[in-house]
Design the sequence.
C-alpha cells in the first residue's frame, strides 16, 4: 500500500485573471478542505478469483465490471468490515492535487525529465506509459501486459524504467 498523507487544500481562484492557485498545507487551515490520510494499492488491481488485490508480479485485471471488482475488493476485510474498496474519486483527486503541486503542470503525459529545475523542482511529466501498445499472448491481443511491480526500483518516486516484452 502507498500512504497518501493527511493534508488541507484550497483553490484560490482569481476571476480577473482566471487563475487558479492550488495551495496545500500539512497543517489545518481554517476554511480549507481536508483530505484524511488514506492508503491506496501500490499496484493495479488483480482478481485472483476470490479477492481483488494490489499484487506484485501479475498482469492487472481488465474487462471486469465495477460491481464485480468492488465486491471482490470488499471481500478482503473481516465480516461486515468494508474498509477495503476500489480506487475512489477522493483518492484520485488527492493524488492529482499532489501531482499538480510537485510538477506545476496539469499535463501528466509530458515526457519524463529526470533533471530538476535550477530551483530544485521537478519538470516534465510522467510520460505516456504503455498506453498505445498491444501484444498477442496465447493468440489473444491484450492491452494489459506489463506485470505489476515493474517500476518498484523507483520506490515511491516517479520516473520510468525499461521493460522488454517477450
Sequence:
Amino acid at each position: 500500500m502507498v500512504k497518501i498523507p493527511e493534508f488541507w487544500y484550497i483553490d484560490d481562484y482569481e476571476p480577473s485573471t482566471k487563475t487558479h492557485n492550488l495551495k496545500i498545507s500539512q497543517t489545518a487551515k481554517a476554511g480549507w478542505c481536508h483530505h484524511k490520510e488514506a492508503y491506496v494499492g501500490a499496484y493495479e488491481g488483480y482478481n485472483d478469483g476470490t479477492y481483488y488485490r494490489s499484487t506484485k508480479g501479475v498482469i492487472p485485471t481488465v474487462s471486469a465490471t465495477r460491481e464485480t471488482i468492488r465486491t471482490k475488493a470488499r471481500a478482503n476485510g473481516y465480516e461486515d468490515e468494508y474498509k477495503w474498496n476500489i480506487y475512489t474519486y477522493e483518492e484520485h483527486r488527492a493524488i492529482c492535487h499532489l501531482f499538480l503541486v510537485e510538477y506545476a503542470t496539469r499535463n501528466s503525459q509530458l515526457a519524463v525529465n529526470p533533471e530538476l529545475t535550477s530551483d530544485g523542482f521537478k519538470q516534465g511529466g510522467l510520460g505516456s506509459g504503455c498506453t498505445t501498445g498491444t501484444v498477442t499472448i496465447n493468440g489473444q491481443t491484450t492491452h494489459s501486459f506489463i506485470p505489476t511491480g515493474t517500476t518498484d526500483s523507483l520506490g515511491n518516486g516517479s520516473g520510468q524504467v525499461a521493460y522488454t516484452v517477450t
About this structure: DSSP finds two helices and eleven strands in the chain. The first helix runs from residue 66 to 74. The chain has a mean pLDDT of 88. The longest strand covers residues 7-14.
